[in-house]
Amino acid sequence: MVWSLVVASGRFPRELFPSVPEIFRAGYNLAAEGLLAEDIVASLRRAFAGFGLGAVAGIAAAVVTANTAAGRNLLQPVLRLLSPIPTIGLVPLAILWFGLGESSKTLVIALGVFVPVWINSHAGLASTPADYLRAARCLGAGRWQTLTRIVLPEATPDIVSGLRVGAAMAFVLIVVAEMTGTTAGLGYRIYQAQLFSQADRLIACLIVLGIIGALCDLVIATGTAPVTRWARKEQ
Question: What pTM does this model have?
Answer without folding.
Answer: 0.85
